[in-house]
Amino acid sequence: MKENISNKIGLYNHSDGFKTHRYGCKSYIQLFAIFLLLFMVSCKAKKQLIAKKAVADTTVAKPIDNKKVQLDAIRAGQTSFNTFSGKARATLDIGGSVNDVTLNIRIKRDEKIWVSVTAIAGIEVARAVITPDSLLVINRLQSLYLKKPFSYINKFAGNQVNYKTIESLLIGNAIPELINERADLQTGPDSTILNGNLQTLAYKLIIGQRMKAVKTNLSDQSVGQSMQAINSVFIQAGARLIPSQIDITSLVKEKKIQINLHYVKSDFDQPLEFPFSIPTRYKEGN
């Protein structure tokens, strides 16, 4: 059905049906585990050429570093923000178990990611807060909670994944570490491709029009882990251009996790709250 969505988004097609499932704590831990600036190129003032009689101009122009210019342009094309809030319809496929849920996502840039998962009839089944140092999850269906260091996520997503990786994926930005001078850069008429390695992690980043990341491939064959993120259906959210459709697939050995995320509402730089408390009757999970 078509739903008229205000808040700068437009018309979207999505299913209102939600399957009724029981959610295990482990599944939601895996879900949050995979979740898993402005263009500031300084322009020097143009030098005025002053002709002097009988004096030759011996100034030698410095060669332009085209690669640096291109990398700076890519960095500038990523969405800059202080806070982000979004509502998304999501289909989660965790090892063949498929669930339709709604995700409410709030981000305070570089500090925390807050996610609430609701199922049928808007009932919240899980909530999580991810910071650069920690992971907190509560499972309301089983009255369990989890408190772990951020390194716990690396068990599922690889050692190269950090907080900024997850933040970038949720907002549709390119992962910052992939935009570096060591990358092999290829420019075509409609896209720019960056290939490279970060220790044992091989990556391929495809940048499309208006310098937006459209596809990211990560692979660490030494531990049998890979991830692919595809951004599509770009929309205007105020002055920003963001993907409304984000599809992430993670493979850890034989275990496959896939999330299809469709934003139906988004807002930037508004005051946000990040409520999170663990009821006293909840038990700590493993």
What does the secondary structure layout of this molecule look like, with pairings?
Blueprint: E1 2-5, E2 10-13, H1 25-34, H2 66-77, E3 83-94, E4 97-108, E5 112-118, E6 124-130, E7 134-139, E8 144-149, H3 151-157, H4 163-171, E9 184-187, E10 192-198, E11 201-207, E12 213-220, E13 225-237, E14 240-252, E15 255-268, E16 283-284
Q: Could you give a short account of the major beta sheet?
A: 14 strands, mixed
The number of distinct β-strands equals 16
Question: Averaging pLDDT over every residue, what do you get?
Answer: 81
CATH superfamily: Lipoprotein localisation LolA/LolB/LppX
Shape: globular
Please give the count of helices.
4
- The neighbouring-strand order within the major sheet is 9-10-11-12-13-14-15-3-4-5-6-7-8-16
For the termini, the CA-CA separation is 41 Å
CATH class equals Mainly Beta
CATH architecture annotation: Clam
For this structure, the CATH topology is outer membrane lipoprotein receptor (LolB), chain A
Domain module count: 1
Structural class: mainly beta
Proportion of residues in extended strands: 35-45%
Order of helices and strands: EEHHEEEEEEHHEEEEEEEE
* Helical amount: 10-25%
Radius of gyration: 22 Å
Unreliable segments (pLDDT under 50, ≥5 consecutive)? Answer: 1-57
Plain-language structure description:
The chain is mainly β. It has a single domain (22-34, 66-284), classed as Lipoprotein localisation LolA/LolB/LppX (outer membrane lipoprotein receptor (LolB), chain A, Clam), CATH 2.50.20. The chain contains four helices and 16 strands. It has helices at 25-34, 66-77, 151-157, 163-171, and strands at residues 2-5, 10-13, 83-94, 97-108, 112-118, 124-130, 134-139, 144-149, 184-187, 192-198, 201-207, 213-220, 225-237, 240-252, 255-268, 283-284. A 14-stranded mixed beta sheet has the order 9-10-11-12-13-14-15-3-4-5-6-7-8-16. A hairpin with a 2-residue loop joins strand 3 (83-94) and strand 4. Helix 1 (25-34) packs across helix 3. 31% of the residues are buried.
